[in-house]
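User
Class, as today's exercise, I want you to study this protein, comparing sequence with structure tokens, and judge whether sequence predicts the tokens.
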Amino acid sequence: MWPVLLNYYCVAAAVLVGAVAGGLAVRWLRAAGDGLGVGGWRVVGRAAGVGFVGTVVLAGGGLLITGVDGFTLIHVAYVVGTVGVPLAGGIVLVGARPRPRVVTAVCVLALAAVPVGVYATYVEPFWLRVDRVELAVPAMGAIGAADGVVGVDSVDDVGGVDERIRIGVLADLQTTGVGDYERDAVERLLGFGPDVVVLPGDLYQFDAAVFDERAPGFARLIERIVGEVPHVYLVSGNTDTVAGLRQIVGGSGARVLDNEIDTFEMRGVPVRVGGTTLFGDEAVARRMAVRLAGGGLGAGGADGAGVVRILIGHKPDAIELVRATPVDLVIAGHTHGGQVSLPLLGPPLTLTNVPRHIAAGGLHELHGTPIYVSTGVGRERGNAPQLRLGVRPSIGIIDLVPSGGGELG
């Protein structure tokens, strides 16, 4: 109920801000035409000031609906920017004639916010892409910290590596219910024939009161994955819980790793998967990470030679658990790639402590460990604006292949 009310409030706030700023600008321009007012740049500046103050005041009003929440402020600002600003520009273009060229140019630029808003709200959030990368590791023996990672843009770019291990990443569905978009994401992932599927948190986002009603849809989604993939792992995130995930998983065969480790063999290679619980016991998580990193391709330990060690965490910050004892791969989500990424600047907001270029998504190296951060399938819900801009949603395909070149990004 509250998100719906907030949506209506944001639209009303945007219309009010746009109408007031545009109306005052017309009045000032008419006064200027009579020799009583100010020039074009001053009109633009005054109108922008009115819009800014109005946005701040009305954003504060939004907090009365939701309580203190930074996403509410972003939501109000976004709707004012994509509805109120072009409304003000349209009012000036229609109501003030003649007008200075600079005012006309600014108003036309303001109208450009309309297609940007339509794209960011209705197109990009559903324009799912496949993010394919390779992580080169030796099948047995030691792995160096600088062994290769190669980004792959298409299926044709992948060589014929018979002994690869393919990991599918389905992060941050973060949806209020399973629909065609979520089912399509799963089918596209399964189409690549992964050996392992990882769901690193935020599978769902809704109130506990409707859990029993909506959980069966997610259970069917997990069952569909398990029906095709022998090893499926989940960890909890910000919007779901270990208990909720375990109820959804049921007896399907998928595993919710609550600071736990699972081991299996894939094509003759032992694979050790550890999952860390967000908001869980930090001491338990660290002990799990130490056990996970106890041996592996790079460790040379007697108990772990030739073992592939993978750590799954919702937030990329999970890599701090293995900072002193690197593993072969960390897989995370959470950031949505920033959900908005600006040209040259990247994502302004990532809500993580890892470097921004890593939080933006893809395969990189940090503290001597390869880390893959998914941009996620869904988007932030609740009080946040439902948008993506410059960061398309994605499913991840990570191919572990024999080493042979390239460098970590």
About this structure: The chain has ten helices and 13 strands.
